[in-house]
């Protein structure tokens, strides 16, 4: 029993040892399995990584291909095709227009090379067009080739993509198969003993981890599949684009075919037209030829007629030859004849020139005589008016005359006679008769009108004196100088001289100069000189002409109103700086403006000199007896003396006395040559109209004797 038990024990122990061995083996296998699974897992992971990488590279490849074939490229291509299309269309339109033109052109009869030229042009054009068509065809085939290449590449890419997908499916298949194997192994292991169950459990636990990894990798796989689907989508789109571009190309091809057919049609029409033109041309040539033959015939006939005419003309020719020989002889003698004729013509011309010259001389003589006569007539006119004339100008009553009865008008005029003036002299009514009387209403222009003739006579070489005579405030300066707005005789005279001289400028060369001087207390001063204080002397000309002159008296040449204004201003400034009370001073001095007009007759060389003396005299009021003293008295005496000397000279001249006392005053001495001889003098007597001041402004006696 014991032995059996021992045996059973040892059996059990053996069994146990065997089982333990088996367990160890199983454990070993499990460990192996474990490591195997781990290896498989890492392998799977690696594979997944690989696939990922592949997918990325695939995606890159796809994007590269896409960019290569890219939408933009396709678009560009499409744009290019469209442009090309547009160009072709335009060309087509042009051809159509040309065709229209050709059709519209009337088939004119062919009259020569014009049509052949046109047809040659058309032929050229046609060959050009054909060339263009060939070119276009080449371009189209190129484009087709390109499209074909692109399509091939796309197919290649698709193929590669398909390979990848197949590979991936295989891999999946393999993995799932291995998963199934693992499951089976696990199930078989489960069927073994308890300890093995435990081992299985641990293996299951670990296997769950593996499952998780697997599911993750499956998820990743899913993701990759999605990406692949996306890529497919993109591929599809690209295919669509390619298809549309194919369609476009087909359309373009159809259009080109259409254009070609149109072109062919046009070509056919053109050929037909050319044919008809050629026929026309041939017809026209035939007609022309027939016409030419007819004409030729007529010409031949004419020629025969001409021949017969020629035969009859021969005798005439002979006579003509004779005539010609005669003429030849005459021509030989012609130079001699010509010389003679020239000689006689020259003589005639010389005679005519002489006659013209003498006529000219005669005319010049007559002209001079006429000039002289005109001068004489003018002189006579002035003389008839009187070489010494006296006119009066009445100053209107102004505010300066004050108010009341003193300021009333005390001067009256004769309504029928403008040479009579009535006024109150020392309270008694007195009347005077003068050459002319100007009422207060007379304007500066009215007064100037009266003296105008005198001034122009100065251009003819006469000396002229115009005096303004009268009491202070009677309007002497107003009449001579005037105001800037309403100038007096001085400025108007110079203006007149300028315009007259201008008018005669074609025949005469005139120069006008002015001097300004004053005589104060019997001393002569230059108003335009640099030293107005300097005393000037009056001397006889050293040339023995008996003329007087003032050495050192400044003379300015004037050519315009601006020049005169400058001269007047200069004189005025000189006077103002010299004398503090100019008004008072000027009423006690004589102011002279001496204008000299020198002229040369351009045709005769005749010279003339005329002098115009414009004198604003000192006030003629009587001061001598009112008890003035010192310098005032001296001034008054000088004024009285010089004015009465002037009165004496004028009286002597008027009564044509043998002796004229020029030397009694500086003024008369200075103006001697302008007062004597043919000279003309005008005295403007200024009169105040107001009752308080009115009166004949004479110093000693009524002058000139009325
Ligand atoms: P005189 O030179 O004789 O002393 P003015 O010429 O200076 O006198 O004249 C005295 C004033 O009378 C001036 O204010 C002047 O403008 C004015 N006068 C002179 N004559 C006329 C006239 N015809 N019309 C208007 N005003 C005049
Ligand atoms: Mg004055």
TrEMBL record:
Pfam families: Kinesin. Residues 2-105, 140-174, 221-287, 342-373 form a coiled coil. Keywords: ATP-binding, Cell junction, Coiled coil, Cytoplasm, Cytoplasmic vesicle, Cytoskeleton, Membrane, Microtubule, Motor protein, Nucleotide-binding, Phosphoprotein. It is a peripheral membrane protein. ATP binds at residues 470-477. The keyword Coiled coil applies. InterPro entries: Kinesin-like_fam, Kinesin_motor_CS, Kinesin_motor_dom, Kinesin_motor_dom_sf, P-loop_NTPase. PANTHER family: KINESIN-LIKE PROTEIN KIFC3, KINESIN-LIKE PROTEIN KLP-3. This is Kinesin-like protein. It comes from Lynx canadensis (Canada lynx).
């Amino acid at each position: 029993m014991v032995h059996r038990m021992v045996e059973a024990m040892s059996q059990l122990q053996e069994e146990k040892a065997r089982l333990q061995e088996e367990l160890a083996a199983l454990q070993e296998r499990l460990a192996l399995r474990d490591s195997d699974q781990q290896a498989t897992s890492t392998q799977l992971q690696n594979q997944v990584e690989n696939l990922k990488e592949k997918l990325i590279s695939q995606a890159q490849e796809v994007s590269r291909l896409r960019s290569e074939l890219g939408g933009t490229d396709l678009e560009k291509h499409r744009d290019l095709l469209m442009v090309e299309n547009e160009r072709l269309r335009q060309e087509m339109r042009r051809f159509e227009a040309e065709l229209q033109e050709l059709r519209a052109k009337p088939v004119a009869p062919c009259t020569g090379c014009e049509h052949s030229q046109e047809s040659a042009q058309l032929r050229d054009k046609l060959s050009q067009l054909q060339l263009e068509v060939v070119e276009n065809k080449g371009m189209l085939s190129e484009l087709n080739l390109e499209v074909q290449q692109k399509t091939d590449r796309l197919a290649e890419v698709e193929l590669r993509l398909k390979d990848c997908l197949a590979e991936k499916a295989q891999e999946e298949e393999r993995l799932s198969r291995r998963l199934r194997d693992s499951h089976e192994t696990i199930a078989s292991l489960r069927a073994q003993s308890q300890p093995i169950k435990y081992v299985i459990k641990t293996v299951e636990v670990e296997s769950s981890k593996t499952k998780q990894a697997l599911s993750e990798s499956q998820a990743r796989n899913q993701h990759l599949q999605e990406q692949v689907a996306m890529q497919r989508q993109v591929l599809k789109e690209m295919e669509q684009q390619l298809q549309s571009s194919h369609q476009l190309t087909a359309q373009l091809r159809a259009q080109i075919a259409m254009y070609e057919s149109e072109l062919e049609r046009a070509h056919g029409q053109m050929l037909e037209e050319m044919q008809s033109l050629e026929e026309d041309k041939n017809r026209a040539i035939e007609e022309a030829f027939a016409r030419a033959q007819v004409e030729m015939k007529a010409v031949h006939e004419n020629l025969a007629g001409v021949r017969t005419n020629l035969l009859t003309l021969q005798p005439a020719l002979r006579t003509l030859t004779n005539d010609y020989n005669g003429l030849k002889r005459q021509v030989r003698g012609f130079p001699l004849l010509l010389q003679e004729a020239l000689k006689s013509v020259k003589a005639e011309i010389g005679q005519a020139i002489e006659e013209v010259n003498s006529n000219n001389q005669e005319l010049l003589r007559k002209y001079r005589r006429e000039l002289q006569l005109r001068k004489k007539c003018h002189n006579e006119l002035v003389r008839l008016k009187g070489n010494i004339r006296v006119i009066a100008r009445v100053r209107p009553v102004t505010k300066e005359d004050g108010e009341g009865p003193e300021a009333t008008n005390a001067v009256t005029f004769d309504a029928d006679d403008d040479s009579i003036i009535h006024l109150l002299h020392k309270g008694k009514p007195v009347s005077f008769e003068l050459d002319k009387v100007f009422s207060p209403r007379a304007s500066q222009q009215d007064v100037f009108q009266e003296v105008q003739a005198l001034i122009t006579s100065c251009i003819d070489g006469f000396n002229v004196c115009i005096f303004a005579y009268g009491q202070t405030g009677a309007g002497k300066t107003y009449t001579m100088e005037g105001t800037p707005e309403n100038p007096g005789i001085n400025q108007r005279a110079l203006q007149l001289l300028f315009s007259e001289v201008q008018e005669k400028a074609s025949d005469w060369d005139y120069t006008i100069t002015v001097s300004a001087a004053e005589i104060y207390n019997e001393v002569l001063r230059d108003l335009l000189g640099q030293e107005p204080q300097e005393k000037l002397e009056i001397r006889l000309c050293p040339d023995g002409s008996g003329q007087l002159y003032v050495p050192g008296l400044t003379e300015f040449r004037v050519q315009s109103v601006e020049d005169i204004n400058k001269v007047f201003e200069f004189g005025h400034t000189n006077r103002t700086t010299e004398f503090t009370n100019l008004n008072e001073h000027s009423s006690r001095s004589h102011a002279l403006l001496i204008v000299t007009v020198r002229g040369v007759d351009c045709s005769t060389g005749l010279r003339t000199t005329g002098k115009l003396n414009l004198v604003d005299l000192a006030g003629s009021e009587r001061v001598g007896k009112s008890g003035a003293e010192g310098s005032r008295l001296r001034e008054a005496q000088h004024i009285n003396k010089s004015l009465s000397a002037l009165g004496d000279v004028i009286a002597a001249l008027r009564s044509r006395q043998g002796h004229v006392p020029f030397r009694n005053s500086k003024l008369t001495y200075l103006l001697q040559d302008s007062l004597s001889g043919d000279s003309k003098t005008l005295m403007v007597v200024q009169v105040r109209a107001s009752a308080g001041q009115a009166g004949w402004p004479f110093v000693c006696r009524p002058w000139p004797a009325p």
